[in-house]
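Deliverable D4.2, example record:
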Amino acid sequence: MNLTVIITASYCPSHPSIFLIKDVLESLRFLNLNENTPILLAHDYNDHPKYLEYLEYLKDYIKHKSNIKIVKRESNGHLTGNIRHAMQFVTTKYVLILQHDLPFIRKVNINKVMNDMDIYPTMKHIRFNKRKNTKAHYDGINNLFGKEIKANHYSYTRTPAWSDQNHICLTSYYNDLILKECKDGRFMENQLYGVNKDEHAHQKYGNYLFGSVNHPTMINHTNGRLLRLTPNISNKVKNNKENTSNKNKNHYYIVKNNFRKNNLNLRCLKDTFLIEKLNHDQSIKNKIPIQKGKLLKCSLVNEPSDKYYYIYLDNIQ
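Output generated by the structure prediction step:
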């Protein structure tokens, strides 16, 4: 095996539901992973009852998946400490590090990415962007952004940003450099902010984005800290008086700030998804992708929380 996948996780308000990490696991189908690629579900410490219940759900979900293993810290280490602990179990040349609320939404052959990195060793840290590849946010802090490498299989864009969001690198890159420079208890990207000050520094850290300039989004942020799908929301919706004509129509939860509301019409502001119903354990029954610019025509738009709309959907235009 040439690759280990680490998916980092910690307690968040959506627990005990496993839908966040399950969504990331299911999104690995986009990567053309080799069969039985080791997958470590790296969990930071927390003794919250809902977190412990979540871990039991997760153990049950992976019990027949021999290549997936849960590893958990005995004390709180934040993201850096969580990765440090998980790296003890990595024996492969490369490591792909993902976060539990950042699923892939587009195909990429990860074996071809590793081959490109073998041939172009200046690419030491390749990130899969949650935005289009443009000179913005961390990627725009200086003029290092934009130089492209057209490798054997894919193109890559140089960036001054060191980000701990979904990325692939050599295992030795973490053990010999990143984990020596970063302390537990803080995000690595905060500790390494601005390290790529010039060409010389960039040769050390080797940060690139997958894809050329303006390449579309590769991952989606489902944001586990905002997502609180609990019985409270369901109960509030249930108590509202709903039009009986809606009884057989599809109903969904959607994140408010992803849409612009105009009466019963909702315009999608970014690539996102519709959340169809909830199962008894508060996991998602189904998720339907919805693209930026689409118009949802609804016969009901309720507001069960300050984060969500609950809708009866007539059609999508």
